[in-house]
Amino acid sequence: MYALLALAGVLLVGGAYLLASATIDRLIRKDAETTGTLWAADFAKRLDDLPAILAGQPPSPESLAFMVNASQLGNVFRFKLFDARGRQLLASDELAAGPKAEQLGTHNPSAAKVLGSGRTPR
Prior knowledge:
Layout: H1 2-46, H2 50-54, H3 61-72, E1 80-82, E2 88-91, H4 104-107, H5 109-117
Antiparallel strand pairs: 1-2
């Protein structure tokens, strides 16, 4: 009888732990996605030459200075810009070194799928 109660207690505590852990993970992921989305929208609004950068042109000195400052402030650890074909144009930690030809599919297959479908993941 005591063994059955102990087993029920262990199962209850284990289930509660797994539920809490999954909930916390989901909340952290949602917060990161929301922060990244809002940050990217603000970032895009502030870069006047973003269409030219995405077309492969180097950023203007003003945009470059903004990107360097943006990479050092806030709660976004790192950002990368990719063109419509999924090629990396620049990364925040490599701004001084210039663009790098990294494929989005290699870096982040989930993001490449989103780029290809035009839809956000659910």
